[in-house]
Amino acid sequence: MKKINLMLYGLFSLFLVISCTEDFDEINTSQTGFTADEVSAKFFLTSTQVGLYAPGRFEYWRAHLIHTDRFAGHFTFGHNASWWGDNLGYDYNAGYTDAAYGWLAGRFGSIKSFGDLTKPGGEFENQYMYAMSLIMKGLYYQMYTETFGMVPYSEAGVDGILTPKYDTQKDIYKGIIADLDEAMALIGSAETSGVGVDDAGSNDIYCGGDMQQWKRLANTLKLRIGMRALNAPGDDFAASTIAAALAAPLLDNASGSVVMKKDLVISEWSSAAYGDIWHDFGTGGAANWTIGATLMNILKDNNDPRLTAYTIPAKGGTFVFTDDGSDVNFQERLDFIVAALDRANAEYTISTSGADTTIEMGAGQYVGQPSRINGDTYPYVRYDLFSLPSEFVTKKRGQQVDTYPEIILTSAESYFLQAEVAVRGMSGGDAQTLFAAGIKEAMAIWGISGGDADAYITSQAIADISTGTMDEKLEKIAIQRWLASYTDGFEAWAVVRDTGYPSELAAGVSNQTIFALGTLNGLYPQRLRYGSGAQENPNFNAALDAQGPDVQGTTLWFAQ
């Protein structure tokens, strides 16, 4: 029988280091080589999937926590126990941005390699796994282009082209849609990627080898991109893309969401979680972050049952603020802290004796920390005044328990997008029914019961789009999409840029006494700057000419 060559064997060993499959031990100890019925591209699949949504700790810290999770308004730094002020990320830092750029730019190679293995004529030719590669490429490029803007696409990975051109976001979206259409056609009615060793099965940590779930994933991604491009300058494909997506199966309450279970056994340097940073950088607040006030207040104001799933209460205590004359803005900064407590409807007492003002706040209260606090306000932002992420999010590695799943694409978003289409009059669906289904699906991921979700839907105005103006309905849909993207900062940030909601975030900040205006002078960040190696491509300047300056404030095509 056919033997696999030695070079391929070496690649096998490399890629399988983090794949954690039962097959690995048997394959890795084989002394006789591999026969054709013992090898499959599925052994290259797991690491490709993990790297896109759960990179190593270095990248998870710099790309997710420093940038997108905080731009999304879900997490904040800048309290008095933190090692970092809340200007981090808003003040451009090449070292941090380079880490995010290096990770995303570097992910293409793994996805392309899997596609090359499985494409027609590839070493492990398999049309269904090749379809997976096209869909993963679409997920990847959507994240990549919405983070930086124009990036190499059409010429990326083409033999003989070492300096690929930068494609417009419009063309990248169109290319993604074409790939998704091809993938769905390849899948057809297939249920699995093959039999025996060709069945991806548990090696597929997105869809468990279910090809129809891959097809629904592709079609829902297609709908997302169509809706994101809708009404952007020169859009000539969104409406037809949306109509085509609505005519095919989407993720729904029967299929469930596509999420990736975190692996807390393999090294955090290969695949990290929030808990790796929470526990390994220091304790007692040194490297810990708080919940953003915008998120907390929306949850609390609307009796959202996700409050206790997303967050834990503030510790509370006695907090003394002393006006020793060194800060001419003492009273304004203290008033700001008090206003934040009032906005959260916190129960506290405040008293003044001489130069000391004392705030006493009991434990067990949910209070969010305002974002983008500057270094001078930093000492006033007491760590124990504010709520933290839930233990489900910050669980320590090695405790052998479940933690939050990485969101790939949810059935909740599928319903929210369909509800928006209906509100815009682009389909005949019932917007409120779709909206309510989305809320239930979003809550299910976090263990919220159907009964609690129903109670929220029937009692809270934020869950009702049966009345109101179109703008009011679209705002509620955007808010629910943003809430459902908790722990998926890349998508939550994109929602704010695309829709302008929550408006409190999109408006940015202006009071430099309180806030860190950053490189953007208080404006809301629209993108990350390219990594420092990007300019080595001779096509780099042409991209800037077409897109705009390489600064965080340049608005990308989809958000214009």
Automatic annotation (TrEMBL):
Parts of the chain that traverse the membrane: none
Signal peptide range: 1-18
InterPro entries: SusD-like_2, TPR-like_helical_dom_sf
Keywords: Lipoprotein, Signal
Protein name (Swiss-Prot/TrEMBL): SusD/RagB family nutrient-binding outer membrane lipoprotein
Species for this entry: Maribacter arenosus
